[in-house]
Amino acid sequence: MSYIGLGSPIAIFTGIAATASAVIGLYIGYQAYRGLRRNDERSMRWLSVGMILLFGLTYTLAIAGQGLVAFRIVPIHLQNTVRLLVRLTQLAGLACIAYSLQIATNQ
């Protein structure tokens, strides 16, 4: 087994951890959506959207982008664009969660 590059044990464990993070994030987003269906309040809607963006979509974009760059499907010079997309998704998720907390405290 190679200790450098895509076949290294560290790269494999990193991929497994990233995939597990994406799956758990999507599960958290799903649970937030279920909570929204039970309690249809405006603050819960924004919390649900924020959690889906932050925990589900961000990790999924990160692992998909990493794979696309690693397997040279997307050119390496677009790696920073992928990172920017992930960071903007995180920011949007955090903003939605912060807004939901603001709504909840004003009610």
What's the SSE blueprint?
Layout: H1 9-38, H2 42-70, H3 79-106
Helix pairs in contact: 1-2, 2-3
Question: Would you mind describing this structure in some detail?
Answer:
Helix content is 81%, strand content 0%. The protein has 107 residues and is an all-alpha fold. It is elongated, with a radius of gyration of 17 Å. It contains three helices and no strands.
Helix content: over 70%
Detail the poorly predicted runs. Answer: none
The separation of the N and C termini measures 59 Å
Give helix and strand order, one letter per element, not per position: HHH
Number of strands: 0
Radius of gyration: 17 Å
The major β-sheet equals: none
**Number of distinct helices:** 3
Class derived from helix and strand content: mainly alpha
Q: Tell me the overall shape.
A: elongated
Mean pLDDT: 85
Strand content: under 5%
Briefly characterize the structure:
The chain is an all-alpha fold.
Keywords:
mainly alpha, 81% helix
